[in-house]
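Q: Can someone sanity-check these two? First one:
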Amino acid sequence: MAKRKLQRFAENETFTHFFQPGWEELSAGFSLRGKWNADFFGNDNPVIIEMGCGKGEYTVDLSDKYPGRNFIGIDKKGARMWRGAKTSSEEERPNVAFVRIRAENIGKVFGPDEIDEIWITFPEPQPNSPRHSKRFTSPEFIARYRQVLKAGGIIHLKTDNDMFYNYTLDVIKEDNHHLLYTNSDLYANPADPEVKDVIDVQTHYEKIWLEQGLTIKYLKFKLNEG
């Protein structure tokens, strides 16, 4: 297992679309911050990030479904991200990138108004209350999203966890964000036009959980005007 991880770490270093800036680079100013369209993707297409992308299959599948948009997967575990990076490299996807950082540092990787949408797919629920600030929809994280998200940008959440789903709904209500859509059983009515695009793309674990009969929840919202 350790040998395989080392092999994946080494291969990550060879991918031109895989970035893993250290603290010194982030502090000094990451070179692509505020310049992802101009200096990396070479277009003006919308930029969408996936928080906690894991193996990156959701990021890669979205890039295939929406070739006119740019997708960036964010995670801290390089061995997991290797799968998505390798697949997108082999398939020569021009609209995909991966950044290995702690999620708290997204403001050091992206500039103001640089991101059009954020996907949060099956995040760690952080069930212990002292760790609520680590939840990807906590007020602390939403403040970080505000630093990089364009006005009117959309945040999507998919989760199998009731606590996390309800927690997010509470945060949206308490902070006067704009809930655009919510569904506590995403696959109950697949013909619903609001969910068709959402269920067309699934993560690896989402497929497993669906086979186990778990209920998938989904919502999307916009931030208040602050």
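And here is the second, same format, sequence then tokens:
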Amino acid sequence: MKKFLIAGNWKMNKTTQESEAFVRELKAKVKSNPEDVAVLVPFVDLHAVKNTLEGSGIKFGAQNVHFEPAGAFTGEVSVPMLKEIGVDYCVIGHSERREYFNETDETVNKKLKALLAADITPILCVGESLEIREKGEEQSFVGGQLVADFEGISAIDAAKIVIAYEPIWAIGTGKTATPEQAEDMCAFIRGVISGIYDQATGDAMLILYGGSMNAGNAKELLEKPDINGGLIGGASLKTEDFSIIAEAAASLK
């Protein structure tokens, strides 16, 4: 049976009060396989979301973390802090973190190892820019990200990581990635993981598509053999749209 994860990345949206109202609505709308659904929320919303989701089966997580367990890192949040709250997931290496906040493959690697040691599932984001795509270098670029990000991580731990492919070139550029392009890159990613480790590890990997999946295109994307779900941005901010995507995944199990 194909595995799915529908993860909503709220980015910098929703106050605590708004987050509580949202997840109350979401609980009522997600009827099938709630364990395949997660919301990834701002740090200030984590406690409220956890308490409101209790008993629903829906998972929750953070959008970033520091790799050190403690220290003089003003404004940062540590893995032990997330562990104490009880998060299920944490996003690592999102394109916005890489572009605006100097995230590198080196820091991504450190964060992956810190999360894995704490039994928190990382959602690792990889993807290429428009410039790289137009040069035809997307596979070498994304392959390089994966090799660097998984450096020193065992096959057992690697299989626990969720990968999200973000076609940065298709976000806010007026260009659109077709389902076939999304599938091609997700299949390539699975092949890279199989090459680094083995076929079993590649086959076990959950690979999400992070390029503007919405209520209208979700089922067509999720039907592709190498797409195990979505890292949803804008559509995750509306319970109606997000629940339709979740139900599309449930209908394919």
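A (reply): Looked at the second one. Residues 5-251 form a domain with the TIM Barrel fold (CATH 3.20.20.70). The first strand starts at residue 5 and ends at 9.
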